Request: fold
Amino acid sequence: MSAHSAERRLVKSSPELWAEVSDQKSLGRRLHAFGEIRITGTDPETTVAWEGDAVSGTVAIASAGWGTKVTLEVEVEDPPAVEAPVLTPEAEVIRAVEAPAPEPIAVAPTPAPAPTPTITKAEPAPTPEPPVKRGFLARLLDFGPPIPDPPRPVAASDEPSPDPEPEPTPEPEAAPEPMPDPIVVPEVEPEVSTEAPEPAPMSAESIDAILNTVLDDLGAAHHRPFSRS
Reply:
């Protein structure tokens, strides 16, 4: 919890200032920066205690020569500290097991040496044999190869007529499978939180500025509207 205070001597009478700080509506209007506040106790003509959400304070007035000294004190609760989770030995073991294993480093294979080409000697080509000389009588009686007889045409009636191939029976078409019913996903309405968000913590500079603003407002002269009799 942090405490802040500010004081100033104002050129106003104590009864006039007491009427302004002891009124719930008047004090709440000046301290609206701290949220909605309420007066919890008073010490007549000297002190007013008030409190709000995560904040509390007092307003004290005292006569000081030709003016009135006003002291404002405020205590603001510090936001709860977020503690780091403490891992037990079992949790550390589970965390170590669930950690991903390091990926293996790929090593390029060593290329095999190229085979040494084997040089073979070419074999000599065989020498062609000289043609055999034929005699005059052999060449005279050589009439060449016999000429085969031409094929005899076959009558159409002699050949058996082939059986006509049976026409294939068409297979019955399979009935189409029924389409599955569409899956209807119910719409889920987003949950609307009815709780008011927690206000952000104020810095020390902003709290001091609020207190000085309240003192400025209390010290300002409030003129009453002109009324004709």
Observations:
- The mean pLDDT is 75.
- Helices lie at 14-21, 24-30, 89-98, 136-141, 204-219.
